[in-house]
Probable dual-specificity RNA methyltransferase RlmN (Clostridium cadaveris), 363 residues
Amino acid sequence: MENILNLSLDELKKWMTKNGESAFRAKQVIDWIYKGILVFDDMKNIPKSVKEKLQNHFVIGIPKVIDEYKSNDDSTRKLLLSLEDDNIIECVIMRYHHGLSICISTQVGCRMGCKFCASTIDGRVRNLEAGEMIGEILAAQNLMKERISNVVLMGSGEPLDNFDNVIKFLNLANSDYGLNIGQRHITLSTCGIVPKIKELADLNMQITLAISLHAYNNEKRKEVMPIANKYSLNELLDVCREYIEKTGRRITFEYALIKDVNDNKEEARCLAELLKGMICHVNLIPVNEIKENTFKRSDMTRVKEFANVLNSRNIETTIRREMGADINAACGQLRRSYLSTQKNEKGCFYGGDDYGCWQCKKD
């Protein structure tokens, strides 16, 4: 069965025509879905014959919420979601003064190997389809009974390692017949896959591109981000300049501050020199601590000193606002905690897939 959320309006119109139905039925069906009607039988203006064809060919692939963590002030909710194949992903809903934002996953797991990230510890299981990413947002809207107005692709997975599906998702999310989320309200975060950033630049989208930088030189970046072994810092910055020139959009550089690793004033001065003259913004993020490594977060005094050095050198810098600190869990931790309690039919711990046991690595 195909997930109907993968289809654009034009694609569903073609399917309707191919199956002997009027093309306008496609818009009616999509309208119902984005109003939160997720059962074909409940779509009141759709003829029974059309409903039967839809039921025989499609599912409305909204992931199931299997666990939910709420902050005490209700500003943040972290959701554990189960997909149609029982794979597990996470998303985070955040309430700001302007409305609701969501941080979504783009893959089940991740293969990029960033040392401070829990999502990548067990590798990548599979890519998410565009419709599954849409499904994360619809699941969140159904839970909150409110519209999601901002999207961040910064959950589990590397978006540019799932390029085609992510681009289709961006177009679907932006479409006026669907979620109608403006491109400037969407942020895509990447560890820095240079050829894919170049492809993204050629598409001239108006999304915000966020680059996970985390070091001012290549050798130090290699220590925390294996991608730096393939694409040098110079290559990355060159393609960032190309991206800015082609799109006219400012780039955000994310900088996770790790105690006694990359958080002193000299590092800040070197980073300012590196980024001098570039249309950019630096977002400082005290690193999330995970049990699988020894990294500790910088204290807030040091974080503020780092920010002051950058701002004093005309590098616009902010410290990421921490929300839901009382339910703090690094990206990927909820999924790993859940998988540690689940067993497949062989008695192995797994994530609902055929990729073997994450604990004993047995197929």
Remarks:
- The domain at 2-59 is CATH 1.10.150.530 (DNA polymerase; domain 1).
